[in-house]
Amino acid sequence: MLELRHLDYFRAVAEYGSISRAAAALHLTQPTLSRQIAQLEKSLGHQLLRRTATGTELTAVGEGLREHLLSIFELVDRVPEVLQAAAGARRLVHLGVPSGIPAGWIEAYLNTVREAAPEIHFAIVEATSEEQRRLLLGGLLDLSLVHTQPPELRKELLFRQRLGCVFREGAGPRDREQLDVADLDGLRVMAHSAKGEEVSLRAAATATGTEVDWLFRVFSEHSELIATSSQVDTVLIGATSARKWFPAWQWIPLRAERPEHWMRTWAAWAGNDLKHGDVLLGCLRETARRYHGDPTYEFIG
Question: Across the chain, what does the average pLDDT equal?
């Protein structure tokens, strides 16, 4: 019989890369943990681990199980939260939020929902657009705000924000109120990913003969440190993230008339039946339409 504790033991071994280290963390003896893993492999009918000179490594089946367990244990960890909401007759909605959402926008949305349906309560999950896609497909999020269009999910375009570049004090172009991709010629530019607007910008640079040294990284809290250590000249980023992560750097927007100079935000959900969809989506549209807290923001209706 498959038991949750056996899966938890396997998760520990996968995390520590060694039965002995995992046993110590779980306060079990090494032989006891080895027997538990052997029972799990027998019940599943697959070898999950192979021994190496330095510990253990996952088989292909073990790696597949490890990835699947990410969703299982996230659901298990949410049990107290779900029970607490049910006991209070509340409707719990797990909402995914990426970085770069305009200041005050999420608060405005939550307040709009609270006025329309006070029984709905939110559990906010901060994650990248790609991470949210996985969580949505795994049933761990009900609704997401994402910066990249997810083709396999239901979605609705809400708003867009001007992209720009941040420069260290004294390092940026002088007396410029906006930039074009040609102004990045010869610069080392850090960007979030090779998807979406970044792909369009790279294509525009190539079409104009602009030579840009692109550096793609995942960055948030340590953005300035990553940019400095990578010796980049500038970072492609929205105004909201620039104010948060690069407060001492100068932000210059890209020209507004080019569509690739904007970062778009979609609402996304899995399946055809979004629970409380009329309220949640209606309030999203209302919040997107009424928000005026950022001059780089534009409602798409």
Answer: 87
Beta strands at 143-146 and 91-97: parallel, antiparallel or unpaired: parallel
| Structure-token pair, residue 280 | 């949640």
Cα–Cα distance between 183 and 83 in angstroms, integer? 55
Going from the C-alpha of 56 to that of each of 22, 34, 41, 52, 201, the distances in angstroms are 11, 11, 15, 5, 44
The pLDDT value given to residue 283: 96
Q: Tell me the per-residue pLDDT of 77-103, one tens digit each, with 9 for 90 and over.
A: 666 666 666 655 567 888 999 988 998
* Residue written as token pair 């570049």: 165
Tabulate helix, strand, coil % of the chain (nearest 5): 45, 25, 35
Q: Which residue stretches of the chain are H helix?
A: 4-16, 19-26, 30-44, 60-77, 79-87, 105-116, 129-137, 197-207, 223-229, 239-245, 277-290
| pLDDT at residue 202 greater than cutoff 60 | yes
- On whether the CB atoms of residues 259 and 200 are closer than 8 A, the answer is yes
294: DSSP letter: -
Whole-structure pTM value: 0.71
CA distance 132 to 153: 11
127: alpha, beta or left, given left = phi > 0 and alpha = psi -120 to 50? Answer: beta
Which tokens belong to 84? Answer: 């607490």
In one letter, which amino acid is 251? W
* pLDDT tens readout for residues 92-142: 888 999 988 998 999 999 999 999 999 898 988 888 888 888 888 888 889
